[in-house]
């Protein structure tokens, strides 16, 4: 398990530095940048003294592609080399990881971060066993419509910074709290300024102003609203659920999106059994998200497709609902991703490490599987092969843990273990 790959280009030998020597003597010492990291993304950087490196390169003998006593070379914004630290090539800069673990940056493939307002009272009532009669998603829709662009942008960037500090280097986010042509297009325009993974979710719920005319709302979502939103989005999504959109409506919405060049993903089988998963597979959706209530036929369909099952345990945690059965999916051969579903109503966490811990404790995943699903699995759910892995050619998106192993993400739940984050080769945390 010591792959020796050539660096992308030759680099001068690093200057010896006493700081490095000292850091090497102190196991688990603070990571030390010996030479100043360049933000110009042209220099090469060696990160060495990594106790455990998760590459997600299956050719190394396991899905996680784990390398011990490892090093990584970053060249510009890409990974140039990984392997045994004793074989690392020379670079411009050098970072001592202090005997810590390094994993790919988390790929959070499902969030709802363009919103305004707060639903603390709703959560408090639910967790206190009291009835709560306010409008759920409708509450957030009203607050989002009333907010200025600046408020929505500030909210989004605040939660992105929060996620980044917890190791998330790629995120997907959706519209779905505007539900008018102008408000949906605005949400997507604001999201597109922050990420390439933008999803049009005009079909989140039928808004109160169309309560008596759901067919008219579907016509809007597949017509004028789609035309206004498609330029900002890569994906189209629908909440296929009792009380939201049925199978026929969901099929019409996703098919219209595909015709406009948007690729499908589906909120499927969250609250009840239904047609969402089968529809996702039929339309080659990148992901069926939630997957809490599945028949054997649903599991078989996922296993025989390239549609990823994205599990969102923050939602079950925050609503005291039944956990999705990750073990059943994995044993059937389904590709599983883990994501936060960060939203102000049913899962107000931006923490992928928290979701990893829940998946291990309550959903039957091993720590290795959960870390894979939160990195490589998320990348699969976004049909990306340039993220979610630390192999030559991939983006240098990586997270340094204040722990000797990735297992600590589940072993030490709730502890802020992320001590460094690089995105596109630049250290940002
Ligand atoms: Zn969602």
Automatic annotation (TrEMBL):
The keyword Transcription regulation does not apply. It is an enzyme of class 3 (hydrolase). It catalyses: 4-imidazolone-5-propanoate + H2O = N-formimidoyl-L-glutamate. Residues 288-406 form the Amidohydrolase-related domain. N-formimidoyl-L-glutamate binds at residues 177, 343, 345. It is found in: Cytoplasm. Pathway: Amino-acid degradation; L-histidine degradation into L-glutamate; N-formimidoyl-L-glutamate from L-histidine: step 3/3. Binds 1 zinc or iron ion per subunit. One of its GO terms (cellular component) is cytoplasm. Its EC number is 3.5.2.7. Zn(2+) binds at residues 110, 112, 267, 341. Residues 1-17 have a biased composition (Pro residues). Fe(3+) binds at residues 110, 112, 267, 341. SUPFAM superfamilies: Composite domain of metallo-dependent hydrolases, Metallo-dependent hydrolases. Its cofactor is Zn(2+); Fe(3+). Residues 1-40 are annotated as: Disordered. 4-imidazolone-5-propanoate binds at residues 119, 177, 204, 270, 346. One of its GO terms (biological process) is L-histidine catabolic process to glutamate and formate. CDD domains: Imidazolone-5PH (cd01296). The keyword Zinc applies. Catalyzes the hydrolytic cleavage of the carbon-nitrogen bond in imidazolone-5-propanoate to yield N-formimidoyl-L-glutamate. It is the third step in the universal histidine degradation pathway. Belongs to the metallo-dependent hydrolases superfamily. HutI family. This is Imidazolonepropionase. It comes from Streptomyces dysideae.
